Amino acid sequence: MSELMEAVRAGRTTYTLLLLTALSDSERRSYVPELKELRKELRTTRSGDYESARIQPALYLAGAACHSGAAAVAGWLAAADMRWGRAPTASVLRVLEHRDADWLADLAHRLAARPVAAEVPYPLMAELVRRAECEVPLTDAYVIGWIQHVSEGGDRSGLLDRLRGEPHLAVLVSGMFTLTDLREVRWLPADGPGAWQSALAELAGAGTLDRSVLLDGCVARLLRGGGPTDHRVFLPLLTRLEPDPREERARIADWAALARDAVSPVAAHAQSVLTALTLAGELTTRQLAEVSEGLLFRVEKKLVRAQLVLLGKVLARDPGAAAELLPVVAQAFGHEDSQVRERALKLVERYASRLDSVEELAWAADQLSPALRHRAAALLGLAEAPPEVYEEVLPPVPEPVRLPPAPKTAVEVAEEAGALLASGGADVAAYERTLDGLVRHAHRDPAALREALAPVVAGRWWTGSHAARWAPSSDPFGNSRYGTLAAGEGIDLLLATLHGKVGTDTLHAAVRRGPQEHPCPHSALSRVFDARLREVAYRIRTEPLPLLLATPTWGTGLLDPADLVARLAEYRRLDARVGEADFAQALLRLRTDDRAAVREAAVRARALGTREGERLARLLSGDTVPTGGRLARWLRGGSRACAGEPVRRRTKGERILVELGEVPELREGFPKAFRGLGLPVSAFGDRTRCHHWDDARRPHWTAVLPGRRELTAARLLPDLADTAMDHDRGTAVLPLLAEAGGEAGDAVHLCVAYGLGARRAEGRLAAVDALLVLAARGQLDAARLGSDLGRLVSGGAVKAQRLADALRTAAGTGAHATTWSVLRHTLPVLLTDLATASAANTALVRGVGELLAAAADCAERCGAHGELPHLADAAGRKGGSRMVTEARRLRAALTPREVAA
């Protein structure tokens, strides 16, 4: 071995540098193959982190010196596997000092063109640019590297001095406005001595930077848009530059575009600029109308109201502008906020006499609520149309979807397994179908299946140098770290078993030991899911199953008895041994609502003459043997106690939870891992050790007991409560619960209640879907859901404004009557609170105003009438707050017109 390679392998970076400087170009090039081989060796062998860390700086330096082309050197210096073992920048520059300027410039631009994630050191790129005396590369990597380098270059108070000392300051600042990704810089402080915006504004004021260039750059970048927080970089800079009226007037078209299309903070700033210009007489009436057309379509109520206030001021000053401005004002008749609609109508009422013709406004009146439409019709002289007969619009009742048969070829199995791994495995139907396909083809022709799976398993974490993680002496569930499988990990386990990466002894021990227990409420569901996967993996290695018994017939997870009998017949024909966990899961998935099909399946099952066939026949026929009779009645839902009826509701802090009693039918005659399904569910169980954080698991839990959703919902309820208070995961399961079978009781309705108050909008959308599905199926208990929502909002578990947003979304689909039926039971609880000392809760007062507005909209649309407890007290309060205004509007909507007259 040469002296240089010995130095590199020994990790002697300083000596390596000394040897490299003494070599000629041709001698350096001769070492490239050996250096590449060493790099490959470090990537593919697990010699330990310390060993790699010791060698890599010397290897990094030698590679930079020995490659001849700038492209090859750039690839070496920016490689991901070399990132954590870089040699000092000074040493790299030392071995490159003999290169000419053009070569150094080429290298600098190639390094700067690398992604920001490559983390190429900025000092290296900057020094190459300086030595080459070339043009500064304005790439994301270079500009962001410069920003971070200057920001971290010492005391924040010295930022201004460091910027003054930058020779390429104007060029690099212009590069800030062309960055494609601001994630690395948008969190820079916008205030204080370290604020870039303040420093740049001061430099512009001193003439060091061109002020007009900065203004144009800020406006152009804000017009370009970007991420939801990108404005945090450029909006503060724009405000600190303090454009004068002349500069603002020159950009009227830009302010109008920002007010119409930009994110809310930017639109608010643009609106304030336009408002000042308007009041100063700098905007023509036509320009104001064009600006308002865009602003009045925005969803932010604050912006729309502010624009209506401005239009009112202009009309008061110049009533002759009504012809151009009132048609624009009328566009707000269709806004979702009732106060916006009423304010727009008041403006029209005040200045309509200035119009030669009101026909141009007639089209907009149809968008108003019935009460306001009546006023508009009287104002505009329109013939009031007879009231429409309200028709509730609910989504069609979901039809159960039959699962397609298992993939016929190994290639199809491989394709579906790849898609499942890429998606995370949350789709129950796709997961079960792929699982069945893997089992069938592993039994039929495992070699062909492995060949088809080759592209799928290439690069999986358990292949290649990482295969030792699932060595025969290790736990096959070690990758999940907590002894419980996520959906995708289950597929990985089967694939690794099929490819011989898991030892038989390990699998046997895992099956015998069973899934790990947790003190959390959904441990019982997780254990059933895990136990079946453990069993399948073990049988793939020892005695492959010909097919899976528990593969659902329907997308909801239900299994037709006839399909189970046919599969047991195939087992008998092949003289195969049934999987205990697979058969137990199949029993829990049985669909028993078609009594004729159940009786026929019982006869066919008994005719099989097998132990499993006889047990299935007893369960389907309801024979009165001790265990079989109880379980048969439970399967048919013949006993409310056996159906998992909540024993009682419990309050835990701000939460309302349910507790379930024991279900003895699930405690006898099932494998150990299944018996937890019959244990009582407590509202006060320990959840601190729960690691079921993967959202892809929850849909599979709904398929464990697809005909008994209350049992599942009670175990998911603490998670759903958390979505409204602590985190954002879990609501995606709500539509599945709504589509599942069994009674929709306290647990299901509480799950939906918490989902309607979820922190994130997408979580609330899932709850709205569940609400509408329950309503379409005739299973929504509006009184139960509404009163629970009232208690949850009153207690603080659900925020009223989030709930109002969700219910407005539900009503917006056409379900105004359904939404009102919920709100009419929610509002009395909250109005009662407001009548007591707890009315000091200003957040609750604001939230009740939002809920009253949603209720008034629904009542007006669906023609609801009647009394609402405590509404009169709220409507009779003094003042014009939103709560009082909406209470009065709701009272008017609930009062028949002839009575009000």
Automatic annotation (TrEMBL):
Pfam families in UniProt: DUF7824
Start and end residues of each DUF7824 domain: 522-599
Protein name (record): DUF6493 family protein
